From TrEMBL:
Coiled coil: none
Bias type Low complexity, positions: 306-316
Lineage: Bacteria, Pseudomonadati, Pseudomonadota, Alphaproteobacteria, Acetobacterales
Name of the molecule in the record: Lipoprotein
Signal peptide: 1-27
UniProt KW Signal keyword: yes
Length: 330
């Protein structure tokens, strides 16, 4: 039995048909603040167009702050970066997000706290850091809102300069990198599957996505899109079966979630606790087409959908030959 698939935008209702592609729902964005308007200076000119990336600012755990104060600082940093025309969000990073890590140490006879703001790319390589001005220990430890916001506002210009410097260096060494060649896609390792499902699904998905015209890579460097696979197991309609849900989440470098491909089925209980084998083949074969359609609807692939088989989209990277018929899944 074929796996039921639903290729949908975020928060869309589940659809029952295999070939149903939900409309792409892209949230409209308001205008970014423009603090350099009228007095741009050198940095303002370089940031005339926001960079094609997003900085994730997770709640810091090594900043000598309570949890609620750490959340406030993360929000303040994201807000200050957006005011500097750098896309940012107070959230855990997506596969292609850059990450801002905040640390703090006591100085001045333990009467002050000095924050450090380190920016890393999506692969975890540190790109640069900004050391903030000392903040009175009491204000920092008590999570004084104005003190935390002031520290965030003071750090934002230095972080923006790091972004400008890194982007300029990359463009100078490879100015046509994003315009040439097939779309680059970062495939994250599948998670949540029993047995060897995580490894098998990741390997098969890599093969099929390559066959559909993508340059699939492990790292984030120059990748335009990210794909995450998440498997969830739940009780089925009877004690003899399990419900399997596989979600493929498609994101863009700027942090926008483009859509999801959802696959559902019921299998004999425990049948996926070992080798996935042909099941992984069938799941990846169907899901890769959904991922391709989501990215095409977002403008990431040129031309209409190909009428030929996936292998014809990229002759140099063909999907594997069809395996023997998989076991029938009820």
């Amino acid at each position: 039995m074929s796996w039921r698939s639903d290729r949908r935008a975020p928060r869309r209702r589940r659809a029952p048909l295999l070939a149903l592609l939900a409309p792409l729902a892209l949230a409209a964005c308001g205008d970014l603040p423009q603090p350099f308007r009228g007095r741009p200076g050198a940095l303002g000119a370089q940031l005339a167009a926001p960079p094609a990336l997003r900085i994730a600012v997770p709640s810091p755990t090594e900043a000598l702050l309570a949890a609620d104060s750490a959340d406030l600082l993360a929000e303040a940093l994201a807000e200050a970066l957006r005011a500097a025309e750098i896309p940012a969000a107070a959230t855990e990073p997506l596969p292609l997000d850059w990450r801002l890590r905040v640390e703090a140490r006591r100085e001045g006879g333990a009467r002050a706290v000095v924050p450090r703001f380190a920016l890393a790319d999506a692969d975890g390589t540190e790109l640069g850091a900004v050391t903030g001005a000392p903040v009175p220990l009491r204000a920092w430890a008590e999570g004084d809102a104005e003190a935390l916001r002031a520290a965030a506002r003071a750090a934002a210009p230095g972080i923006a300069e790091i972004v400008v410097r890194v982007e300029a260096a990359r463009k100078a060494t490879d100015p046509a990198a994003l315009a040439a060649g097939p779309p680059r896609l970062r495939l994250m390792p599948v998670r949540g599957a029993p047995g060897d499902g995580n490894t098998a699904l990741t390997a098969r998905m890599r093969e099929f996505l390559a066959g559909r015209g993508f340059l699939v890579q492990d790292g984030a460097d120059r990748a335009e899109f990210g794909v995450e696979g998440v498997v969830a197991m739940a009780p089925g309609a009877s004690p003899a079966v399990q419900r399997v849900e596989v979600q493929w989440i498609v994101t863009r470098r700027d942090g926008q979630e483009l859509g999801r491909v959802l696959q559902l089925n019921e299998v004999p209980r425990g049948s996926l606790d070992g080798l996935w084998g042909d099941v992984a083949y069938v799941v990846a074969q169907e899901a890769s087409g959904g991922v391709r359609d989501v990215i095409r609807n977002a403008g990431g692939l040129p031309g209409p959908a190909p009428a030929a088989s996936p292998a014809s989209a990229a002759p140099q990277a063909r999907p594997p030959a069809d395996p023997p018929a998989p076991p029938r899944l009820r």
